[in-house]
Amino acid sequence: MFTRWQNPLIYSLAFSSGFTIMGIELLGGRILAPFFGSSIHIWGSIITVFMVSLSFGYLLGGKFSTRNASLKRFGIIYLLGGIFILPIALYANEIMQAIFLQIEDSRYGSLLAASALFFLPTVILGMLSPYSVRLLVKNKNESGQVAGILYFVSTLGSALGTITTSFYLVLYLEVNQIIFTFSALLLLLGLIAIAADKIIKNTAISVKEQEVHHV
Amino acid sequence: MFKPALPTLMLLLLAACSPWPGNAEVVHSERSLYRNIMVEDKGDLRCLRFNVKQNKSNQSCLYKSQPQQLVFNYTKLLFSGLMLNSKPGSILIIGLGGGTMSNTLHQLYPKARIENVEIDPAVIKVAREYFGFFENERVTATDQDGRLFIKRALMKKQQYDWIILDAFNGEYIPEHLLTREFLLEAKQLLSDKGILTSNTFSNSGLYAYESATYYDVFGDYFNVRNNKNENRIILTGKQPLPDIQTLGRRLPALDRQLKPFGVDIKEIFAHMTLASQERDWPQDTRVLTDQYSPANLLNIDK
């Protein structure tokens, strides 16, 4: 029965989204440095943009989960996340160059560059947490516990994404290669979620058919 | 008989209580956005330190009685640059420290334009207050990230005869100041006779990567050092390097010029080696780029 695997699957997806978000945030400093330096306000810009986009993501994800929530739609968010982080690798230099030429002050330059590069993908990835809660909660009583486990899993993923990226990945891979890896991971997870959705629905249908047969 | 003994005794007591001449006295300490800054006096010696624990983390020192005399080896080694270009009209110093380099160069070349770039405004303040760092219409200090300053300077089509890169301290390396892209920008900012000196290390896993990167951008360069395990200066320039004989002919004049500052340029010259002749890094060493620059991780890994 695939439904048995549904919850572990959702938790591991939440773990991975936490992992990628923080991995990308950490690379943000490296990406911005050539144009905006490594002054302390660069990190101010990056953290601000990630926090703002995550908060909008939570809001949107919650809203989105109220209508026809399904693993399939959950998977589609992953696919979008995987696609929207690609411009970070593909167009970062052009985007930063344009901003660098327009804005002299590196504080606002870095803030705008961080917004241009990270806002959309982080909003999308932020949508996943509330959406996971929606898929996991089956009754009111367990909602707090489900949210607790979910925060635990996704924040643990964030922590691991941070340490893995900063301690190891940058030693072996280029910044863009890491972004592509994250993108591939998100796309793959999205497809798995969509496939799982299909399998679960099929089993549900065949179970119903069997029941009908018995009667 | 007892009377003279009393003052002597008191003097002895005083000596015991007061710090011994060898002890350092903290004159000033502050925590800036980037680091802990300490100014310490030890007898005649005044030093700027960025870290409390490590003794070797002195950034800049001067003799209070003879501020002209350079204290640090690596500061002296930086003057090897004058062998390639003895009349720099415009100088860019990335990483201020106590500002000794700027002060000395202004004395040597009163007409040269000297621009100091330092990321930490607190360091500039301490340099002014405790190390006699001065600014005037020819000497300026900007608090900005070095990479940014160079990018903006390129846009303004500025040129420098000498770029001094002194932004690394023992504990943290700004990784974006070590990449091929950065070095290309710095090279572009050099005038036709422009030279670049970098104060770096030679005792970690980073050595090979750094060497490969400089070689990739500038071609050949001089390693200037006098102890294999300490600092090394990378000396290179926009033009191909002159041969050793040519350099040798420039020594006597330079020697007279630099003696008053405690720089023995002949000795420095004797320790200069060409990177192409040593090739002391593996052929397949990866070049550091904006995409791949884990300098601080490589620095740990010996």
From TrEMBL, chain A:
- Keyword presence, Transmembrane helix: yes
Keywords attached to this Swiss-Prot or TrEMBL record, sorted alphabetically, are: Membrane, Transmembrane, Transmembrane helix
The regions listed as transmembrane in this protein's record are: 9-28, 40-61, 73-92, 112-137, 149-171, 177-196
Q: Indicate yes or no for the key word Chaperone.
A: no
Query: Which InterPro entries did the record assign?
Result: MFS_trans_sf (IPR036259)
| Protein name, per record | Fused MFS/spermidine synthase
Lineage of this protein's species?
Bacteria, Pseudomonadati, Pseudomonadota, Gammaproteobacteria, Alteromonadales
